[in-house]
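Deliverable D5.2: sample structural annotation.
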Amino acid sequence: MCAQNIRTTGIAPEQCAISVIVPVYNNAGSLPLLHERLVSILATVTPAYEIIYVNDGSSDSSYDVLVGLRANGGRVRIIDLVRNFGQSAAVLAGFENAAGDILVTIDADLENHPEDIPVLVREVVDGADLVCGIRGSRQAPLVSRKGPSWVANRLVSGALRIDLKDWGCGLNAVTSEIAGQMLVQDPLPTLPKIEAALLSSRISQVPVAYSDREHGYSGYTTGRLLGFAAAFLKGYSITRTFRRLRAVTEGRSSARTGPGIINVVCWSVLSSASIVVRFALFIVGSKSKAERFQVREVLE
Protein backbone atom coordinates (compact mmCIF):
# COMPACT_ATOMS: atom_id res chain seq x y z
CA MET A 1 0.00 0.00 0.00
CA CYS A 2 1.10 3.54 -0.74
CA ALA A 3 0.92 4.78 2.86
CA GLN A 4 3.00 1.88 4.16
CA ASN A 5 5.85 2.20 1.66
CA ILE A 6 6.41 5.93 1.34
CA ARG A 7 9.45 6.03 3.63
CA THR A 8 11.40 3.66 1.41
CA THR A 9 9.96 4.24 -2.06
CA GLY A 10 9.29 7.98 -2.11
CA ILE A 11 5.79 7.58 -3.50
CA ALA A 12 4.13 10.89 -4.38
CA PRO A 13 0.57 11.90 -3.33
CA GLU A 14 -0.75 11.46 -6.87
CA GLN A 15 0.22 7.79 -6.70
CA CYS A 16 -1.87 7.18 -3.59
CA ALA A 17 -5.48 6.03 -3.52
CA ILE A 18 -7.52 8.33 -1.29
CA SER A 19 -10.90 7.60 0.29
CA VAL A 20 -12.80 10.53 1.77
CA ILE A 21 -15.40 9.43 4.34
CA VAL A 22 -18.26 11.87 5.02
CA PRO A 23 -20.71 11.04 7.84
CA VAL A 24 -24.08 12.52 6.88
CA TYR A 25 -26.90 13.31 9.29
CA ASN A 26 -29.53 15.78 8.12
CA ASN A 27 -27.09 17.74 5.94
CA ALA A 28 -29.20 18.06 2.78
CA GLY A 29 -28.59 21.80 2.49
CA SER A 30 -24.79 21.65 2.50
CA LEU A 31 -24.19 18.44 0.50
CA PRO A 32 -24.25 19.86 -3.08
CA LEU A 33 -21.64 22.54 -2.36
CA LEU A 34 -19.56 20.17 -0.26
CA HIS A 35 -19.52 17.63 -3.08
CA GLU A 36 -18.58 20.24 -5.66
CA ARG A 37 -15.64 21.40 -3.55
CA LEU A 38 -14.52 17.85 -2.74
CA VAL A 39 -14.46 16.80 -6.40
CA SER A 40 -12.66 19.98 -7.38
CA ILE A 41 -9.85 19.66 -4.83
CA LEU A 42 -9.42 15.88 -5.00
CA ALA A 43 -8.93 16.05 -8.75
CA THR A 44 -5.83 18.16 -8.12
CA VAL A 45 -4.38 15.59 -5.69
CA THR A 46 -4.78 12.19 -7.34
CA PRO A 47 -6.84 10.50 -10.05
CA ALA A 48 -7.38 7.58 -7.66
CA TYR A 49 -9.94 8.90 -5.21
CA GLU A 50 -13.40 8.00 -3.98
CA ILE A 51 -15.94 9.87 -1.87
CA ILE A 52 -17.89 7.69 0.55
CA TYR A 53 -21.01 9.28 2.01
CA VAL A 54 -22.40 7.44 5.05
CA ASN A 55 -26.05 8.31 5.58
CA ASP A 56 -26.45 7.92 9.33
CA GLY A 57 -30.23 7.63 9.54
CA SER A 58 -31.02 11.13 8.26
CA SER A 59 -34.63 12.24 8.61
CA ASP A 60 -34.42 14.98 5.98
CA SER A 61 -33.78 14.62 2.23
CA SER A 62 -30.05 13.88 2.60
CA TYR A 63 -30.34 10.39 1.11
CA ASP A 64 -32.17 11.67 -1.99
CA VAL A 65 -29.56 14.40 -2.43
CA LEU A 66 -26.77 11.81 -2.22
CA VAL A 67 -28.45 9.61 -4.81
CA GLY A 68 -28.70 12.63 -7.09
CA LEU A 69 -25.00 13.42 -6.65
CA ARG A 70 -24.10 9.83 -7.45
CA ALA A 71 -26.30 9.87 -10.56
CA ASN A 72 -24.33 12.84 -11.91
CA GLY A 73 -21.23 10.68 -12.15
CA GLY A 74 -17.93 10.79 -10.31
CA ARG A 75 -16.40 8.46 -7.82
CA VAL A 76 -19.25 8.43 -5.31
CA ARG A 77 -20.32 5.59 -3.03
CA ILE A 78 -23.22 5.71 -0.58
CA ILE A 79 -23.53 3.65 2.59
CA ASP A 80 -27.03 3.82 4.04
CA LEU A 81 -27.28 2.80 7.70
CA VAL A 82 -30.58 1.38 8.97
CA ARG A 83 -30.86 4.10 11.60
CA ASN A 84 -28.88 6.79 13.38
CA PHE A 85 -25.89 5.11 15.07
CA GLY A 86 -23.82 8.25 15.64
CA GLN A 87 -20.83 9.84 13.97
CA SER A 88 -18.24 7.35 15.25
CA ALA A 89 -20.16 4.39 13.86
CA ALA A 90 -20.61 6.20 10.54
CA VAL A 91 -16.85 6.79 10.32
CA LEU A 92 -16.13 3.11 11.01
CA ALA A 93 -18.70 2.06 8.39
CA GLY A 94 -16.82 4.23 5.91
CA PHE A 95 -13.48 2.74 6.95
CA GLU A 96 -14.87 -0.77 6.48
CA ASN A 97 -15.88 -0.03 2.89
CA ALA A 98 -12.94 2.18 1.87
CA ALA A 99 -10.48 1.05 -0.79
CA GLY A 100 -7.92 3.84 -0.37
CA ASP A 101 -4.43 3.82 1.10
CA ILE A 102 -5.15 7.10 2.88
CA LEU A 103 -8.52 7.60 4.57
CA VAL A 104 -9.70 11.16 5.16
CA THR A 105 -12.67 12.05 7.35
CA ILE A 106 -14.55 15.33 7.03
CA ASP A 107 -17.87 16.54 8.43
CA ALA A 108 -20.71 17.26 6.00
CA ASP A 109 -21.64 20.68 7.38
CA LEU A 110 -18.87 22.69 5.62
CA GLU A 111 -17.44 23.89 8.92
CA ASN A 112 -14.24 22.16 7.76
CA HIS A 113 -12.86 23.09 4.35
CA PRO A 114 -12.22 20.40 1.70
CA GLU A 115 -9.39 22.60 0.40
CA ASP A 116 -7.29 21.57 3.44
CA ILE A 117 -7.29 17.89 2.43
CA PRO A 118 -4.07 18.07 0.34
CA VAL A 119 -2.12 19.26 3.39
CA LEU A 120 -3.29 16.25 5.41
CA VAL A 121 -2.48 13.86 2.57
CA ARG A 122 1.01 15.35 2.26
CA GLU A 123 1.64 14.70 5.97
CA VAL A 124 0.67 11.03 5.59
CA VAL A 125 2.89 10.72 2.52
CA ASP A 126 5.71 12.19 4.61
CA GLY A 127 5.31 9.40 7.15
CA ALA A 128 2.52 10.20 9.61
CA ASP A 129 0.11 7.44 10.63
CA LEU A 130 -2.52 9.93 11.78
CA VAL A 131 -2.97 13.58 10.83
CA CYS A 132 -5.34 15.73 12.88
CA GLY A 133 -6.72 19.12 11.98
CA ILE A 134 -6.57 22.00 14.45
CA ARG A 135 -9.44 24.41 13.90
CA GLY A 136 -8.84 28.15 13.99
CA SER A 137 -10.69 30.67 16.11
CA ARG A 138 -14.36 29.88 16.47
CA GLN A 139 -17.23 32.16 17.42
CA ALA A 140 -18.81 30.02 20.12
CA PRO A 141 -20.22 30.62 23.61
CA LEU A 142 -17.48 30.36 26.23
CA VAL A 143 -19.56 28.62 28.89
CA SER A 144 -21.51 26.14 26.76
CA ARG A 145 -18.93 25.23 24.11
CA LYS A 146 -15.43 26.69 24.29
CA GLY A 147 -14.96 26.08 28.01
CA PRO A 148 -16.19 22.45 28.11
CA SER A 149 -14.32 21.71 24.86
CA TRP A 150 -11.05 23.00 26.32
CA VAL A 151 -11.52 20.96 29.50
CA ALA A 152 -12.31 17.79 27.52
CA ASN A 153 -9.29 18.29 25.26
CA ARG A 154 -6.92 18.78 28.19
CA LEU A 155 -8.25 15.86 30.24
CA VAL A 156 -8.09 13.37 27.38
CA SER A 157 -4.67 14.57 26.22
CA GLY A 158 -3.29 14.46 29.73
CA ALA A 159 -4.76 11.06 30.50
CA LEU A 160 -3.54 9.37 27.32
CA ARG A 161 -0.25 11.30 27.14
CA ILE A 162 -1.08 12.25 23.56
CA ASP A 163 -0.94 16.01 23.18
CA LEU A 164 -3.59 16.66 20.53
CA LYS A 165 -4.82 20.23 20.48
CA ASP A 166 -8.28 19.54 19.01
CA TRP A 167 -9.85 16.14 19.65
CA GLY A 168 -13.16 17.42 18.27
CA CYS A 169 -12.03 18.37 14.76
CA GLY A 170 -13.69 16.16 12.15
CA LEU A 171 -11.03 16.74 9.46
CA ASN A 172 -8.42 14.01 9.89
CA ALA A 173 -6.41 11.53 7.83
CA VAL A 174 -5.24 8.04 8.73
CA THR A 175 -3.48 5.20 6.95
CA SER A 176 -5.50 2.18 5.88
CA GLU A 177 -3.24 0.07 8.10
CA ILE A 178 -4.33 1.92 11.27
CA ALA A 179 -7.98 1.80 10.16
CA GLY A 180 -7.68 -1.94 9.61
CA GLN A 181 -6.33 -2.45 13.14
CA MET A 182 -9.39 -0.67 14.51
CA LEU A 183 -11.86 -2.69 12.46
CA VAL A 184 -10.68 -6.07 13.81
CA GLN A 185 -11.33 -5.05 17.42
CA ASP A 186 -14.30 -6.56 19.25
CA PRO A 187 -16.14 -4.50 20.22
CA LEU A 188 -15.34 -1.77 17.73
CA PRO A 189 -13.77 1.39 19.20
CA THR A 190 -16.26 3.78 20.72
CA LEU A 191 -14.13 6.75 19.66
CA PRO A 192 -12.14 6.02 16.46
CA LYS A 193 -9.94 9.13 16.66
CA ILE A 194 -8.71 8.25 20.15
CA GLU A 195 -8.07 4.64 19.14
CA ALA A 196 -6.21 5.75 16.01
CA ALA A 197 -4.03 8.00 18.15
CA LEU A 198 -3.21 5.12 20.50
CA LEU A 199 -2.29 2.88 17.57
CA SER A 200 -0.20 5.44 15.71
CA SER A 201 3.57 5.66 15.94
CA ARG A 202 3.72 9.13 14.41
CA ILE A 203 1.02 11.78 14.77
CA SER A 204 0.97 15.08 12.93
CA GLN A 205 -1.20 18.12 13.61
CA VAL A 206 -1.94 20.85 11.07
CA PRO A 207 -3.95 24.10 11.28
CA VAL A 208 -7.12 23.98 9.18
CA ALA A 209 -9.71 26.57 8.26
CA TYR A 210 -13.05 26.74 10.01
CA SER A 211 -16.35 28.37 9.03
CA ASP A 212 -19.69 28.67 10.77
CA ARG A 213 -22.27 26.42 9.18
CA GLU A 214 -24.82 27.99 6.85
CA HIS A 215 -27.39 25.18 6.92
CA GLY A 216 -29.06 23.44 9.84
CA TYR A 217 -27.77 23.71 13.36
CA SER A 218 -24.57 22.62 15.03
CA GLY A 219 -24.64 19.34 16.89
CA TYR A 220 -21.53 20.40 18.80
CA THR A 221 -23.34 21.25 22.01
CA THR A 222 -22.74 20.81 25.72
CA GLY A 223 -24.83 17.63 25.51
CA ARG A 224 -22.59 16.24 22.79
CA LEU A 225 -19.50 17.06 24.86
CA LEU A 226 -21.01 15.18 27.79
CA GLY A 227 -21.77 12.29 25.45
CA PHE A 228 -18.14 12.31 24.29
CA ALA A 229 -16.98 12.26 27.90
CA ALA A 230 -19.31 9.35 28.74
CA ALA A 231 -18.15 7.42 25.67
CA PHE A 232 -14.53 8.00 26.62
CA LEU A 233 -15.10 6.89 30.19
CA LYS A 234 -16.99 3.79 29.07
CA GLY A 235 -14.59 2.85 26.29
CA TYR A 236 -11.39 3.68 28.15
CA SER A 237 -12.31 2.74 31.69
CA ILE A 238 -9.75 1.52 34.19
CA THR A 239 -9.45 -2.13 33.14
CA ARG A 240 -9.47 -1.60 29.40
CA THR A 241 -7.19 1.41 29.54
CA PHE A 242 -4.46 -0.31 31.52
CA ARG A 243 -4.62 -3.20 29.04
CA ARG A 244 -4.43 -0.87 26.03
CA LEU A 245 -1.67 1.33 27.40
CA ARG A 246 0.72 -1.60 27.75
CA ALA A 247 1.24 -1.27 23.99
CA VAL A 248 1.89 2.46 24.19
CA THR A 249 5.61 2.78 24.89
CA GLU A 250 7.40 6.00 25.77
CA GLY A 251 8.57 8.05 22.82
CA ARG A 252 6.46 6.32 20.15
CA SER A 253 5.31 9.70 18.91
CA SER A 254 6.62 13.22 19.03
CA ALA A 255 3.11 14.24 20.08
CA ARG A 256 3.30 12.30 23.33
CA THR A 257 4.07 14.03 26.59
CA GLY A 258 6.12 12.54 29.37
CA PRO A 259 4.77 11.27 32.70
CA GLY A 260 4.08 13.86 35.32
CA ILE A 261 1.63 15.27 37.79
CA ILE A 262 -0.75 16.30 34.98
CA ASN A 263 -1.11 12.70 33.82
CA VAL A 264 -1.75 11.52 37.37
CA VAL A 265 -4.37 14.20 37.99
CA CYS A 266 -6.15 13.56 34.68
CA TRP A 267 -6.30 9.83 35.23
CA SER A 268 -7.47 10.31 38.81
CA VAL A 269 -10.35 12.50 37.60
CA LEU A 270 -11.31 10.28 34.67
CA SER A 271 -10.92 6.99 36.55
CA SER A 272 -13.12 8.23 39.37
CA ALA A 273 -15.70 9.52 36.92
CA SER A 274 -15.61 6.24 34.97
CA ILE A 275 -16.83 4.37 38.02
CA VAL A 276 -19.80 6.73 38.28
CA VAL A 277 -20.59 6.47 34.56
CA ARG A 278 -20.39 2.68 34.44
CA PHE A 279 -22.51 2.38 37.58
CA ALA A 280 -25.11 4.68 36.00
CA LEU A 281 -25.10 2.58 32.82
CA PHE A 282 -25.61 -0.53 34.93
CA ILE A 283 -28.56 1.06 36.75
CA VAL A 284 -30.34 2.06 33.53
CA GLY A 285 -29.67 -1.34 32.01
CA SER A 286 -27.27 -0.28 29.26
CA LYS A 287 -25.57 -3.15 27.44
CA SER A 288 -21.90 -3.57 28.20
CA LYS A 289 -21.14 -4.32 24.56
CA ALA A 290 -21.95 -1.62 22.02
CA GLU A 291 -24.25 -2.55 19.17
CA ARG A 292 -22.48 -2.77 15.82
CA PHE A 293 -23.74 -0.47 13.08
CA GLN A 294 -26.05 -2.08 10.53
CA VAL A 295 -25.98 -1.24 6.82
CA ARG A 296 -29.20 -1.15 4.80
CA GLU A 297 -27.48 -0.85 1.42
CA VAL A 298 -24.28 0.17 -0.30
CA LEU A 299 -24.52 2.00 -3.62
CA GLU A 300 -21.28 1.59 -5.57
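Annotation notes: The chain has one domain: 2-286. The chain has a mean pLDDT of 80.
The annotation will be released with the project's public dataset once the embargo ends.
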